[in-house]
Specification:
This protein is α/β, with parallel strands linked by helices. It has helices at about 15-25, 45-55, 70-80, 100-110, 165-170, 185-195, 225-235, 245-265, 275-290, 300-310, 310-315, 320-330, 335-350, 350-360, and strands at about 5-10, 30-40, 60-65, 85, 95, 115-120, 130-135, 160-165, 200-210. A hairpin with an 8-residue loop joins strand 6 (about 115-120) and strand 7 (about 130-135).
Length: about 350
């Protein structure tokens, strides 16, 4: 049994996959297996993977018909033999000591999973290619049970983690199998966070999350609908896991609202009432049926929920400012990060906060 299995789902990433696999085979932890799932690629990705497998016995390549990211990940979970496993998207890269460091933490503290910070990676820029992002605001380097923690909501980048294989299998954790590759990681994050008893976040960044791939699902105008549907699938999750506490519902509704709202606020194109309608209906019905638990919502999120419940047309009218900001930010996507960070800060906190920041008062 290898210490760590590393899953690499691949679909038409010939431009990036070589750099990705190189970063994995060069890990300082050598006792690993690498499971590459080719989801029916129509470019040179499959041939590249086969070439790597011929050179390195730790690499297994599974070719299958195209059926989406969730299907690929479930197939890989069935194949995993490692004590722990991680996953790397085939357009991303990782630091050479990532899995050695995370594995040592996981084993020492008997963790269900451990996650790290990450970098947003802009390799096409001439300068400022990396922006550092924190995984959490207050859970670092200590063992926690997520649903019993004061800080449940962390950045949802599942690829930054290492997961105990027995924990995943004993709890029958699976990916939601939908077409394409859009937000299936949300359901995996939801399940692992809800069911884990021992987790840790470490304040080091190892994962390089490519942020200038224009084919990324986050830029799709369908992101709002897709995100809402992903969470709808897990709405009745406690019916199959009765051991989950009542806290799950408060956790679920805040996560669902926050992430679908996030999808809305990332749009660079006009948001239409038709796109927002499913989002609106989900929460209108939940409020009407008294299903929703808003006890974990932030004040700003409660305000936005009230805005949504006034109807899709009204909600869309309130998003015009976000769209204009995103268009401005999008025009400098490949430029050095100072301008982008300044625009993000103004949008999030306002001009007054920016002035205070530069004056050293914030």
């Amino acid at each position: 049994m290898p210490k760590v299995s590393i899953i690499v789902p691949v679909y038409n990433t010939e431009k990036y996959v070589t750099e990705c696999i190189d970063s994995i085979v060069n890990q300082s932890l050598k006792d690993i297996e690498i499971i590459c799932i080719d989801d029916g690629s129509t470019d040179a990705s499959a041939a590249i993977l086969d070439e790597y497998a011929n050179k390195d016995s730790r690499i297994r390549v599974i070719h299958k018909e195209n059926s989406g990211y969730g299907s690929s990940m479930n197939r890989a979970l069935d194949e995993v033999t490692g004590e722990y496993f991680g996953l790397v998207d085939s357009d991303d890269c990782i630091a050479c000591d990532m899995y050695r460091y995370l594995y040592e933490k996981a084993v020492t503290h008997e963790l269900d999973f451990v996650r790290s910070d990450h970098y947003r990676w802009f390799p096409e820029r001439e300068a400022k290619k990396l922006n550092y992002f924190y995984a959490t605001s207050g859970l670092y380097n200590t063992v926690k049970c997520p649903l019993e923690s004061d800080d449940l909501f962390v950045r949802i980048v599942t690829c930054t983690g290492l997961y105990k294989t027995s924990f995943i299998r004993e709890n029958s954790i699976r990916y939601h199998e939908t077409p394409g590759a859009a937000f299936q990681d949300q359901g995996f994050w939801l399940q692992t966070t809800a069911l884990a008893k021992r987790v840790m976040f470490v304040d080091r960044g190892f994962y390089y999350y490519r942020f200038d791939n224009e084919a990324s699902s986050i830029h799709s105008p369908k992101a709002i609908v897709t995100m809402d549907r992903e969470y709808e699938f897990f709405r009745d999750y406690p019916s199959t896991h009765p051991e989950l506490s009542d806290q799950y519902f408060a956790f679920y509704w805040r996560a669902r609202f926050a992430m679908t709202l996030f999808s809305c606020q990332q749009m660079e194109e006009e948001i239409t009432p038709e796109l927002v309608q499913p989002f609106y209906e989900s929460f209108r019905q939940a409020v009407q049926n008294k299903e929703i638990d808003t006890s974990l919502f932030l004040e700003k999120q409660l305000d936005m929920l009230a805005c949504l419940l006034k109807g899709p047309e009204y909600f869309c009218s309130q998003q015009i400012g976000n769209i204009k900001w995103n268009q401005m930010i999008g025009t400098c996507r490949k430029e050095p990060g100072v301008l982008r960070k300044t625009l993000f800060h103004i949008r999030a906190f306002g001009f007054k906060s920016l002035i205070q920041k530069f004056c050293g008062n914030a």
